[in-house]
Amino acid sequence: MLRDRVALVTGGGTGIGRGVALALAEQGVRVAVCGRRGDCLDQTVSLIRERGGDAMSMTADVTCAGDVERVVAAVVKAWGRIDILINNAGVSGRTPMEDPDDARWSAILGVNLTGSYLCATRVLPHMSDPAYGRIINMSSVLGRFGVPGYAAYCTAKHGILGFTKALALEVAGRGITVNAVCPTWVDTDMARQGIEETAAVLGMPADTFRARALAAVPIQRMAEVGEIAALTVFLCQHDAAAITGQVLNVCGGTTAGSGG
Asked: Which of 117, 132, 150, 153 is catalytic?
């Protein structure tokens, strides 16, 4: 049982982050969500409280060590410790090599990869149960293979896998598990943005590219947020204590033929 555990979910205001926060709260976990959009975070907290859960929210930029430290301190002050860290905050976007502006590359690596590192390093000292701790890092199927034009996102999500494996070995002796989840297309605002952006580059309607993208997924559909959340919650359970340093695909079969 996860009742009375304490979780921090980054990027918890929308999409997968909100879904994971709600799913953890349903298990009796006290959930803190952070991100850049306060209004969305407040909506997540309201949904949790409407269902009888305990939650709090804080605006933060996970690329800023000071922001991360402030969030962690607030959670520990309120609830005494952090048992579960969900490194979900992420941004995507095209970074073609002919683009002379390095800012998007830096932002994508900063949020997805450096943000996960900063959160893990600041949370780990407060994982005080000697037999329990969970870190789940959200990667992507683009952490399993490359996509032209998305070098920064692919690099960041591949990097998450190496970070997950190394960190898992480093903290195994403390009873802490560290795993990564690699979703395919998930029905979220980020996916819709990606579809529209790529469709515009290819000069086709967004609906046409969406159909083409889903045709490449063996199950012929996007994953649902609830499917990602269900796996994440399982990895937090005591029954998953022997699963660590692993990369779990929720890909609809997309990686089955790639060796990923």
From this structure: 153
- Fold (CATH) for 6-183+223-247: Rossmann fold (3.40.50)
**How far lies 97's CA from each of 18, 40, 100, 146, 255, in Å?**
33, 33, 8, 14, 25
Q: Does residue 109 contact residue 103 with C-beta atoms inside 8 Å?
A: no
Helical H segments across 80-144, by residue range: 103-109, 115-123
Query: Whole-structure pTM over 0.85, yes or no?
Result: yes
pLDDT grade, residue 4 (50/70/90)?
very high
Q: Where are the domains of the chain?
A: 6-183+223-247, 188-220
153 catalytic residue (yes or no): yes
Q: What is the pLDDT of residues 181-239, one digit of tens each?
A: 999 989 888 878 878 888 887 887 888 888 888 888 888 888 899 999 999 999 999 99
Structure tokens at 224: 């649902």
